[in-house]
Amino acid sequence: MENRELKRVFDQVKLSPERQEAMLERLLSGERSRKTVKPMKKTVAVLVVAALMLMACAFTVATGLDQRILEYFGGTEEDAQLLAPGFMAVDLTSTAENGAKVHISQVYSDRRSVVVVGEITVPDGTVLNMDNYRFEDWNLRPRGTDGSEPDGGYGSSTIYGGGVIWNDEAPGDNTMSFLQEYHYEVENRDPNIANKLTWATEIECFELTLGNLKGCTEGGEWSTAPVVVPGEWTFDIPLSGKEFGWTVEPEQTIELEGETVQVEEIYLSPVGLSVRLTHENGNLMTLVKAWEAQENGGDPWGYSVVLRDQNGRAIEGSVPYSGYSPYTGQMLLNFDEIYDPAQFQGGTVTILGQTFSLDNLQPVAE
């Protein structure tokens, strides 16, 4: 099979010359390495593979989904369709008094996480020669669908930073790009429903404030790292994926020291798992602390959660957060790669030593 046969296929999608050559090499090297396959069947097979790869590339190009978001979650272009419902292209710019601009171009979100992709353009004369960068200050506050101001109507919002990636594509200029992930949970302020976490569907957007860009040398201490670009930048970040993912609200409960703990929600997106606990009498913290000490070697309860797909395979990942208050508890599991949540229907999740069926796992109702 010759290059020109595949190039006719590539003409259907706008790819850079480098990506065309890389894909050609992968496809043709596979053809050259298997001499026992009949030429005609192999030609058809390679064309099919090429078409599938190009469809994935075309989908990524059509949606504008940044490759860095896929790579951050351990995925490839073939996974772009799974993330598409939570993706939104935006055009948000904020300028500090000194002229430094931060522009956010892409947002991915679900009911547990927000990922923003953007870039900072610093004033002329600013030297960007550090090994690592981060914003010294950041704050992500929920804004309600009823138009309330950030934190209006919410007594407690827990926001914690996830991974961050900085990339200086053209060293020497005054622009750098970044990817930042945030995880969140929000509680209602009303004391009459203090044991009820606010659903993500009640949040319209987040107000994101970034402050002071710091730079640090490799192995240096962030506490003493200098501020490279002072300033403050504020944005309204849409929660594009609030109706995205699969969920189940189990009827099964957990008994701890004679008291009942309710698993309010098990939520799955293509990139992670979230489990939320409630206890109507406000004794959850005491009960879970005792379980951690007696049954989990003192480790946080979220570290013991095990998710298995419909084939019984345990899913690998990391736990960025596991916590509780007197009334509520939540843990997050970030997958090592992207999964279709449908494959967990019929699987199980083990929480505080008790196994829950995912037979009733269903897509989030819009």
Give the key terms.
about 375 residues, alpha+beta, seven-stranded antiparallel sheet, 6 helices, 18 strands, globular, disordered N terminus
Structure notes:
- The protein is α+β, with helices and mostly antiparallel strands and 366 residues long.
- It is built from six helices and 18 strands.
- The longest helix has 25 residues, at 39-63.
- Mean pLDDT is 79; it is low at 1-20, 26-62, 150-156 and 189-199.
The largest β sheet comes out as: 7 strands, antiparallel
How helical, in percent, are the residues? Answer: 10-25%
**Number of DSSP E strands:** 18
User: End-to-end span in angstroms?
Assistant: 48 Å
Q: What is the tally of helical segments?
A: 6
Q: Per the principal axes of the C-alpha atoms, what is the gross shape?
A: globular
Helix/strand order, N-terminal first = HHHHHEEEEEEEEEEEEHEEEEEE
Low-confidence stretches: 1-20, 26-62, 150-156, 189-199
Structural class: alpha+beta
Report the β-strand fraction as a percent range.
Answer: 35-45%
The average pLDDT is 79
Using the CA coordinates, give the radius of gyration: 24 Å
Short description:
The chain contains 6 helices and 18 strands. The protein has helices at 3-10, 17-32, 39-63, 67-72, 80-83, 284-295; strands at 87-95, 101-109, 113-121, 132-144, 154-167, 175-188, 203-216, 227-238, 246-248, 253-256, 259-269, 272-278, 306-308, 317-324, 328-335, 348-351, 354-357, 362-363.
Topology:
Layout: H1 3-10, H2 17-32, H3 39-63, H4 67-72, H5 80-83, E1 87-95, E2 101-109, E3 113-121, E4 132-144, E5 154-167, E6 175-188, E7 203-216, E8 227-238, E9 246-248, E10 253-256, E11 259-269, E12 272-278, H6 284-295, E13 306-308, E14 317-324, E15 328-335, E16 348-351, E17 354-357, E18 362-363
Antiparallel strand pairs: 1-2, 2-3, 3-6, 4-7, 5-6, 7-8, 9-11, 9-18, 10-11, 11-12, 12-15, 13-16, 14-15, 16-17
Helix pairs in contact: 2-3
